[in-house]
Amino acid sequence: MSKNNIIPKSKEYSTDGKVRHLSNDEDINVKLGKILGKKFIDYRKKWDDANNMKLITEFPLFLQLDMNQECNYKCPHCIIGHKKEVDEYYEGDYLSFNDFKKIVDEGSEYGCPSLSPQGNNEPFLIKDLHKYIEYAHHKGFIDIMLNNNGSALPIKRAQQILDSGLTRIRFSLDAIRPETYKKVRVGSIPLDRVIKNIEDFLNLKEKGGYKLPVVGVSFCKVKQNEDEVEEFINFWRNKVDTVSIQKFMPPTTNKQKYKKYYASDQYNEEPVKKFHCVQPYQRLTFRNEFMYPCCVSFNKDLKLGSIKTGTIYDAWNSKKMNEIREIHRTGEFYKDKTCNDCVNLIYPPEQEFLN
Ligand SMILES: C[S@@+](CC[C@H](N)C(=O)[O-])C[C@H]1O[C@@H](n2cnc3c(N)ncnc32)[C@H](O)[C@@H]1O
Ligand code: SF4
Ligand code: SF4
Q1: What's the gap in Å between 278 CA and the centre of ligand 3?
Q2: Which mutation among 90, 220, 254, 258 tests ligand 1's pocket best, with the greatest number of atoms within 8 A of CB?
């Protein structure tokens, strides 16, 4: 059984050890394999091999697109809740629809299977987001996913999203109790309205006979909500396909400032001894126009170039990218300052690997 003793371990998976996804019936990737067929199954096999560092693909399997930093909430555990830090850690131009097309076109050329048009922002504030998703879907991307805060998805948009080709949608809630929700999701609409939006989305999906997207809810576990995890899982597990519990990642290297958000079982001052990061084997992350080997916001020193002047292929196969992969293959994460900071900020020494 899993740590929480609620859902058998075989129904858990993680993309990077930071997020645990729990599914209520069968493993969600098995379910998606049945819906999407061989192409999806082959891609997940490559994903597993990349995660085990047995495979370095010629092009990323996953493109993560942090296209802008616009949000209607100011969650205190998220970089978006801290404007000064957004200004400090982000640079370059937001990605336009034309930039998006350029990225997707290159991905399509290499048969890239997976993409997320969401970063540190609220994706449904992007005008006509469904058109971005449709474009990627028609260009052959089969695993298109996003998280959203559930506040900006009225029925009309929900219908557009259902018709867009989106594969996975997750609603981030981080609370089960309304008073906690207000504290962890500052500037939010009330929790019951978000729950209503999720229920409306699920009803629309069911009535229309849509198999996709698979629907999940997400909970970033911080000190302020840590006693609600089980209640949250129990409330949602039979309503949605997946319940995700995320580890808190300090948005910047200022550990002292963010100390108060660490869940009690996560914070640790002891240096991490053993860790292998799989992100540089899986994905390329865009933060605005710039490309990086991973999703953390304090990785400026790992920058691989701009999509305005270079290609994804060249960034993915660059010397710098290969060096990062190599230090993680050998477990020598401490050789890179950013990785060393990152590992010691996020992972307690007893880090449990789910991959
Ligand atoms: C940055 S948000 C962007 C999408 C959307 N605004 C939302 O809230 O889902 C994506 C996910 O990251 C999570 N998140 C935000 N700050 C985080 C942090 N410091 N550590 C871990 N997860 C975080 C959110 O809870 C959310 O599930
Ligand atoms: S809603 Fe999402 S992007 Fe916005 S502040 Fe909260 S976690 Fe960050
Ligand atoms: S900074 Fe290094 S250890 Fe952290 S996510 Fe990026 S590649 Fe992985």
Answers
A1: 8
A2: 220
CA distances from 179 to 176, 225, 260, 299 (A): 9, 10, 18, 34
Cβ of 74 less than 6 Å from ligand 2: yes
Q: How far is CA 306 from CA 54, 82, 141, 313, 321, in A?
A: 28, 25, 22, 12, 14
Interstrand relation of 290-292 and 62-66 (parallel, antiparallel or unpaired)? unpaired
Atom 3 in ligand 2: which residue has the minimum CA distance? 121
pLDDT above 50: residue 187: yes
Summarised one tens digit per residue, pLDDT across range 62-99 is 999 999 999 999 999 999 999 999 999 999 999 999 99
pLDDT at 350 over 50: no
Rounded CA-CA distance 65/288 in Å is 8
- Could you report the per-residue pLDDT of 190-204, keeping only the tens digit for each? 999 999 999 999 999
Q: In the beta sheet, which residues pair with residue 219?
A: 245
Lowest mean pLDDT across 18-22, 183-187, 313-317: 18-22
End-to-end CA gap in the chain? 16
339 CA distance to ligand 3 centroid (A)? Answer: 5
pLDDT at 10 over 70: no
Is 153 within 8 Å of 176 (Cβ atoms)?
no
Whole-number mean pLDDT of the chain? 92
Burial tier of 55 (Cβ tally within 10 Å: 0-12, 13-18, 19+)? middle
Instruction: Count, in order, helices (H) and strands (E) of the chain.
Output: 14, 11
Q: ω before 76 within 30° of 0 (cis)?
A: no
Residue 74 Cα to ligand 2 middle (Å): 6
Pocket test for ligand 2, best of 19, 66, 67, 80 (most atoms within 8 A of CB): 80
% of the chain at pLDDT higher than 70: 90
Q: How far is CA 189 from the centre of its chain?
A: 23
Distance 187 CA to ligand 2 centre (A): 10
